[in-house]
Amino acid sequence: MSSSDAAPTANARTRRALRDWIVDVCCISLAALFSLTTSESMATDPSVSDEALFADLMAGTLACLALWLRRRRPVGLALVLLAVGTVAFYVSGPLLVALFTVAVHRPLRTVAWVGGAALAQIFVAPAVRPDPDLDYTGNVLLGALLVSGAIGWGMFVRSRRQLLESLRDRAARAEAEAALRAERTQRLTRERIAREMHDVLAHRLSLLSVHAGALEYRADASPQEVAEAAGVIRSSAHQALQDLREVIGVLRAPDAAPGATAADGAPDRPQPTLADLPRLVEESRRAGMRVTLSDDAGVAGAGAAAVPGATGRTAYRIVQEGLTNARKHAPDAEVAVTASGAPGEGLTVEVRNPVRAPVRTRSPARTPGAPPENEDRPGAIPGSGQGLAGLAERAALTGGRLECGPSDAGDFRLHAWLPWPA
């Protein structure tokens, strides 16, 4: 018996000890009843002495009691009973039970060897102890029928148990795989929420930080400048809350993918598109940044309607993250935003800014609420460090690609290409 067969059997005995006892008692009772019924002719045969009959009966009794060992030593028990059954009539019942047990608990190769031994015993036993009621041929045919029936039934029970065990294993694996899928879905949902929250709120909150820092730094600001800066803060906070509501609405939709629009099957909610790029640039300018937008092909203007919704929104998020990073890491740098492309060629967006911003003198023309440009800012805007990784993932989801890093010209370059079907 292999280790794989032994473990389930041992576990089954541990779990179902009462059932095993009941089965063993039933098997011993049936074996004894079968031996007594089929050996009646021997008991009434006058040619059989009382001593031989008693010895045969005792051999059958011991064989029935030995069936308690059939689960531990089925092969050894079957071989011993085959040898004893060659000369004893009353061993026929326990022998069939032992052959059945071998077929249930042992692999096919072992069953074949034991079956071969049983076949040899079928031809030898009628010659050693002929049955008074049957001739040799009848004895052989009856023995072959009984042995093949016991072994065949045992192999059927074994195959059924293996099938049930396979189904249980398959159900357990399916349950484990379902748990893994649920865990993976939960993880992807969390990542999706984090990505959407970062894309939507990082830009707005960085604007709030810039204007609030200006108010904290400029204690001598006029009431008009303070009012204008407070108005910008209020407007940015209101817009951040509105964006947050839109993100939550999209995330609550079960089939809405990041970057999807109403045309793609997502809820019909206002989502930023490439047409909102000029407004995004203007918001950054009002925060004190120097931003230029190059849109020679007009894809961010009147031609934005031709850009697919998911592609346009992804491009908007890329530029938004690029401006946010420039505001965090190079607040006094001049940022260049470029958008170009055509159907069939793809959409290209790029954000460039110097790695180190030059120190500039105080400018008399400064946006109200913006901090002085020749002095240090009150505090740096913190970052999570995951924005660019999220952008690369977002671009890959739409079938595009994203590159970022220092360029040969000495500035930081954020470049993305997105598919635009013809």
From TrEMBL:
GO molecular function: kinase activity
Record-annotated DUF7134 domain positions: 19-161
Organism for this UniProt entry: Streptomyces lonegramiae
Superkingdom in the source lineage: Bacteria
Pfam families hit by this protein: DUF7134, HisKA_3
Listed InterPro entries: DUF7134, HATPase_C_sf, Sensor_HK_TwoCompSys, Sig_transdc_His_kin_sub3_dim/P
Source taxonomy: Bacteria, Bacillati, Actinomycetota, Actinomycetes, Kitasatosporales
Alphabetic keyword roster: ATP-binding, Coiled coil, Kinase, Membrane, Nucleotide-binding, Phosphoprotein, Transferase, Transmembrane, Transmembrane helix, Two-component regulatory system
Bilayer-crossing regions: 21-39, 51-69, 76-104, 110-128, 140-157
Enzyme Commission code(s) on record: 2.7.13.3
Domain Signal transduction histidine kinase subgroup 3 dimerisation and phosphoacceptor: 190-255
Protein name per UniProt: histidine kinase
Catalytic activity: ATP + protein L-histidine = ADP + protein N-phospho-L-histidine
Region (Disordered): 355-387
Coiled-coil intervals: 157-184
Residues spanning the signal sequence: none
